[in-house]
Specification:
α1 crosses α2 and α3 packs parallel to α4. With 444 residues, this protein is an alpha+beta fold.
Amino acid sequence: MLDPERARRLAHVALEESRAAETEVSVTQYEQELNRFTADHPVQNLVRRLARVAVRVRVDGREGKASTGTPTDEAVRRTVRRAVEVARRMPVAGEILPLPAAQEGYRLRRPDPLSPDPGQTADAVARMTGLCRERGCTAAGVKGVANDLRLIANSNGLEVWDLDTQANVSLSVFHGAGAGWASGVAPRRDGLDDGAVAERAVGKAIASTTPDSVPPGDYTVVLEPAAVSALLLFAAYKGFGAQQVHDGSSFLAGKIGERVAHESISIEDDVHHPQTVGHVFDGEGVPRAPVSLIANGVACGVVHDRRTAKRTGCRTTGHAMPQPSMMGPLPSNLVLAPGTGRTDDLVRGVDRGVLVTEFHYTNMVEPTRLTLTGMTRNGTFLIENGVVTRPVKNMRFTQSLVEALGRVAGVGGDARLSGALFGGHMVVPSLAIDGFHFTSQTEF
């Protein structure tokens, strides 16, 4: 596993076997160590290794795709033949772009793999769970490392590979009726501070033990990075892609060059940011370029794949999904420029508001205004006169993210890599936002 020469050999086997007009091969080697635990005992400790070879071919204007999880020469040859057979049974495709040729100027990410180390993981888990027990808390968590080697090669001479590494920890802590949560993700094992994650989660759980109800309505909120990422995920999915802008479903449709957020908001997509993770090329093997999306509140760009770039007469930014795909290009490494100070500094500027640790079950209601609904979770607190005074029961919100970004009252300097749903990651700070609309309260 994690052998680029082996991945290259499998790709070459596929290319040599194929008699199609064009052939693309994607080889993935994935290795993960995962430890699930409670405060009292380990639940699961595993190391898993997976490999996958996907083949896409073009025959007489038709496209076919097949894949295998058996990384042997014969299995790859069978997969090529199956892809060709699929293509022959497909209708003639519409617009088909030639596969990309060899790329120049790559800045590849090839760090040392994060070797699974169950002993080191067990020690870190013991320190976190020991703190939970000392404070009278129960807990459940996940800690692990993952390596994802990806290679893309095609019959037009493209061949590129890189290695994405991630270390992560997520800890949910409970104290009576109180719940707290914290997490961390980094491209290096030493980039995680497990003790700090445990301290944050335990502190929030203990502080949340006796939550009060507050009426729904409009509040100034201070959103910690995890809550910010849960909202921006939907801007990535349904806002910053050229296809969504072109078909009018994006909040940026017809707005490029116009103000769409508070002047303190600047967002870019940059896979080379030192805090982020991910592969530096897209689903077709094209390098991901940094793209400024919003600069000082003004919409200034979107991400492209080769299809949308051809349609609009510009260059691809390297944001294609694995093909074929109906989704169009999507950003994968959003970076929200930080301000100054910490979350506490944002809190001090709030007369009456709500501090939100994270959002849960967030979903989109309407895309052109990025209207979202969801619930607070694992640490929601009332702010009065610049001080966090007491825990409050969770609340449901329904809020346009476009309107919220226009009412930003402060941007923290605490930008960090934060996970979002569906495996996404982005570098975001805390935000203070005026007039955030909560529609109802819960019983917990």
